[in-house]
Amino acid sequence: xxxxxxxxxxxxxxxxxxxxxxxxxxxxxxxxxxxxxxxxxxxxxxxxxxxxxxxxxxxxxxxxxxxxxxxxxxxxxxxxxxxxxxxxxxxxxxxxxxxxxxxxxxxxxxxxxxxxxxxxxxxxxxxxxxxxxxxxxxxxxxxxxxxxxxxxxxxxxxxxxxxxxxxxxxxx
Length: 172
Prior knowledge:
The chain is of the alpha+beta class. It has helices at about 15-30, 55-70, 100-110, 130-140; strands at about 5-10, 30-40, 45-55, 75-80, 85-95, 115, 120-130, 145-150, 155. The strands form 2 sheets. Strands 5, 6, 7, 8 and 9 form a 5-stranded antiparallel β-sheet that branches. It is elongated and about 60 Å long. The relative contact order is 0.21. It catalyses: 2 pyruvate + H(+) = (2S)-2-acetolactate + CO2. This is Acetolactate synthase small subunit. Its EC number is 2.2.1.6. It comes from Acidipropionibacterium virtanenii.
């Protein structure tokens, strides 16, 4: 049985780093469940949020050790289960004049919104935890989903502590 863990990794912000990290996972046969890369407050550093499925704590430990060997990696932490996590989903749903208001009402229950409307479709934007987004998608299936695009997780631990590179501008 596998379990999903979220790693927050600070890396050098330059071309090829994502390839090196993804290549490490591929060479070792580890599955990346989700991956997002974003800038930080330091333009020299990017933050990768990597969801990994592992079958044991020792596998996770191996992944962290292997990542630490990459010279482009500044810092790695495993986020706590209580971390704040969000994803973004765009769902294009088949719609017409008859069902459009039903779709909008359904999406409103999930605090989503319509971001594009045409004669035959409506595109919905929603953010939240994975379970919420899966529930929304399940509700929208009855209308006929045309397309789904979903981001990987972004996450931070709760509280004042922050993951920061040694070279961050603000000195924290």
